[in-house]
Amino acid sequence: MTHPAVSTAVDLVNAPLLYKGKVRELYDLGEQALIVVTDRISAFDYVLDPAVPEKGNVLNRLSAFWFGKTKELMENHVVHIDVDQLGEAVKDREALKNRIMVVRKAERIDIECVVRGCITGGGWRQYQETGKVNGIELPAYLRKNAVLAQPIFTPAAKNDVGHDEDIPFEKMQELIGAELALELKEKSLKLFAFAREYCEEHGIILADCKFEFGLLDGKVILIDEIFTPDASRFWARDKYALDIEIDSMDKEPVRAYLSASSWDKNSTPDPLPLEVVEETTRRYLDIYHRLTGKSL
Fold first, then answer.
1. Distance between CA 172 and CA 150 in Å, rounded?
2. 37, exposed or middle or buried, with CB in 10 Å at 0-12, 13-18, 19+?
3. Residue 13 has what DSSP assignment?
4. Each residue's pLDDT tens digit, 236-249
5. How far apart are CA 117 and CA 143, in angstroms?
6. What is the pLDDT of residues 74-126, one digit of tens each?
7. Nearest residue to 180 (alpha-carbon basis) of 168, 190, 171, 172
8. What are the two backbone dihedrals, phi and then psi, of residue 93, each rounded to the nearest 5 degrees?
9. pTM tops 0.85
10. How far apart are CA 184 and CA 290, in angstroms?
């Protein structure tokens, strides 16, 4: 059964709102914080209507799944994901079931740590223009979607407004310090290698992904979300091919619909058609099932 979409939790939580992102909302629980993953969906820097049922459940449950799998590799911010432990902090437990994460408060490091295992998307566009990605020179004559001999680390400086800015590793070292930059690079590559192997065993190619890290008592920990359809590019192995736009296992139906429409990308688009919303829900449920072997 598909549950009604949750587009915001501001009326469902008895705690101060600290931050409202495109999808996630962060609430203050004192020593800890509460992340609520809504069903909002964004594309081309616009939050769209309507919200996509079950999307937030999938993102939150998948993050919890991966945080559990990777905790031996990298400490993370998760305390628990049990809405029943929140007591008076929530007004509607059923609406928030499966979409909350109580976390330790960490100081966010303002670098988006991106790892690319294939040359596609924005990395492909850079390569076409310069033969490089974030200043990393790659072999000549690579084809779109080619698997790289070694995954590459291509960080971006985070901007809370507008796009994050792709930067070379040397710039990242200048911004946060050489030692910390190297630690984040090494952790990112190790996490990617772990997840890529797991995905391969489940018929999925992990083309690229992004991580966020924070500092807690001087120690680096993993925060935000990991290996979800919103933070990773998943391809079904049987759909893989060179030189094409591969249908990724995420909000691709939304992007495809908007790209084919007359929308100018400079104003709020019209509401999404029901069939696009339903197909997007199906995509999120499918990737969750393929990765975890479970259904929501």
1. 20
2. buried
3. B
4. 999 999 999 999 99
5. 13
6. 999 999 999 999 999 999 999 999 999 999 999 999 999 999 999 999 999 99
7. 172
8. -65, -35
9. yes
10. 29
